[in-house]
Amino acid sequence: MIILDGKNLTLKQLNQIARKKEKVKIDEHQYECINQSRAFVESLVEDQKPVYGINTGFGKLATESINKVEVSELQKNLLMSHACGVGNMLSVDVVRAMLALRINALIKGYSGIRLSVIEKMVEILNADLTPVVYEKGSLGASGDLALLSHMSLPLIGLGEVIVDGVTMSALEGLNIKGIKPIECLKAKEGLSLINGTQAMSAIGGLALYDAIKLMKIANISFALSMEALRGITSALDPKVHEIRGQEGQMIVASAMRNYLHHSQLAMPQDEKRVQDAYSLRCSPQVHGATYDALKHIKEIVIREMNAVTDNPLIFSNEKEAISAGNFHGQPLALAFDYLGISIAELANISERRLERMVNPQLSNGLPAFLVKKPGLNSGFMIVQYTAASLVSENKVLAHPASVDSIPSSANQEDHVSMGSISARKARTIIDHAYQVIAMEMMTACQAIDFRGKDLLSPVTKRVYHWIRKEIPFIDQDTIMHPYLVKMEEIIKEDSFLDLFE
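Above: the chain sequence. Below: its structure as tokens.
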């Protein structure tokens, strides 16, 4: 059970809720501020003083007054009219993360929503009832309106849900789980549900969690390639990295020295071999830059996961409702563009190391395409093609979405972040990078069999034998696809990191 308090949610906890289906509970210390915020909203409704989103229309329609007897209909209409998502359905884990993040924001007590509505969200999340949310339609300012509207519809018995992998109407799914929908939303509650950055935070937050894991895997993949190519370890000397002072670079080089300690394949420079190509010699610098990027991005994402991002904001102690712009996704949009770029570079340099292993002109004596009878067999030739295809596609996807903006709501919302696009692009780049680095590791193991597996370091030897339990030496041409898929599955297993961390 994870206790949500609006302040301390971590990436690890978000992953547990989204993917391990860990249940959540609201910290009881938040009840008072939630109730006070709600009481102030109700007083505003009674006073009939115009306050955006409470008794007015939305966006450009903010000048339209709404009678207090119609405020509930206004909130229902908001969810229905804004549920304009298109494209594929978001994965179950992303939608679960959206729910958890929205709950975590609402319980801070600045949104004016009833405790009972938030508790209904908790009930749906803990019952493993997943709203159907379509991936496209958010501009990333005014929050992720379309996506959060789809997430919120089942609270009032509308929309669709997924139960045990089956898509059905929300009412049918709620009935199966024994959950009663909310009879009606009250003033501001629809707006409180959808005006925030929780869709892009969910997509990008889970992607970031996977990217941090991939960073570690990329380092051990680099170590295997160093041994496969008989790389020169002098470039890992701590003196080299300390005088530059870049934190990530120093951390990566330190990890590499540990991984390659006692290796009989990767050795210091000598009279015959002075330096390697950049894809080996500069990997600590490249990987280290990605490490630093991920650290920076994580700080931004964690802040946003525990932030209030809707509008208007309710300050019940000061008796104020302030209309502002915390829903604008620019901090995340820039961060997720940066995430995509930084991971694309991990894949780029990984593919270059792979190319060196299969190219007999660059591999320090390995057979062409790592097969005993080249010509009759193509070996790992097309593995490199596929990796090249993925890194090339990543270069297209790495173009930042955050530099674009298009006006909406009759030019009232005249600058938007495109943050959800940044997050989705980063997610795809990370998926590709996992595949490329899996290919590099599989290729390195093939090359190591020609060098001599007994010459590996103790750390890389553990990794090699773990892979060889599932992926055999390729003696002659065979269908490679199943092995590529299996290799990706291996590196994604939680137990894989335990081999070298």
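The chain has a mean pLDDT of 94.
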